[in-house]
Amino acid sequence: MNTTLTRRRVPAALAAAALAVSFGALAPRASADDGGAPFGPGCASVPKEGAGSFAGMADDPVATAASNNPELSTLVTAVQKAGLVDTLNNAEDITVFAPTNDAFAKIPKADLDKVLADKAELTEILTYHVVDEPVEKADLADGSFKTLQGGTLTTAGSGDSYEVNDTAAVLCGDVATSNATVHLIDTVLMPE
């Protein structure tokens, strides 16, 4: 038996295994066990390809990713009016509870127009939807999270059914962007 050859193979195999593990640690998490894959009934409305798809959104920071998703055009308009695009795009490891266009449509037009014209109030409302930490599916079962606005959001639920503040349903959760986790919700949340 050639022991020299065997001795060379073992360190090479260990080095290859260590390299594979280190690259694996850098890969994004997305397994069924940790809830990293998008979930919920509203995920079917996300485009299957292109910049607004799950893969496309994962490549961009959150405000840019939202601008590519047709379900979030009203939110994007509000973020632009509040001057929060750079703030959101430059933040790290945040979570955005993102109201869909249908969520904004629940607000009477005159009231929505008034809020969109008041930058201070709009900023309060929008930053109430942002948490300065990653919040994934497993955290939604019974959670309480401080928002950038200073208030608190609570979450509850199980399986693929979760609510925020007992008023907003998570339509599509755990959507990854390059700097955030996004949960699309069906109601605009109002700070107390």
General shape? globular
N-to-C span: 77 Å
Rg over CA atoms, rounded to whole Å, is: 20 Å
Query: What is the correct CATH architecture?
Result: Roll
Number of helices: 9
The mean pLDDT is 85
Low-confidence residue ranges: 1-35
Task: Specify the CATH homologous superfamily.
Answer: FAS1 domain
The count of strands amounts to 7
Strand order of the largest sheet: 2-1-7-6-5-4-3
Q: What are the defining features of this structure?
A:
disordered N terminus, FAS1 domain, globular, seven-stranded mixed β-sheet, alpha+beta
Explain how this protein is built:
It is a single chain. With 192 residues, the protein is an alpha+beta fold. It has a single domain, classed as FAS1 domain (Roll), CATH 2.30.180. Helices cover 41% and strands 20% of the residues. The chain has helices at 3-26, 54-58, 62-67, 73-82, 85-90, 101-105, 109-117, 119-127, 137-140; strands spanning 94-99, 130-131, 142-146, 152-158, 161-164, 168-176, 180-185. It has a seven-stranded mixed β-sheet. Strand 6 and strand 7 (180-185) form a beta hairpin. It is globular, with a radius of gyration of 20 Å.
List the helices and strands and how they pair.
Blueprint: H1 3-26, H2 54-58, H3 62-67, H4 73-82, H5 85-90, E1 94-99, H6 101-105, H7 109-117, H8 119-127, E2 130-131, H9 137-140, E3 142-146, E4 152-158, E5 161-164, E6 168-176, E7 180-185
Parallel strand pairs: 1-7
Antiparallel strand pairs: 1-2, 3-4, 4-5, 5-6, 6-7
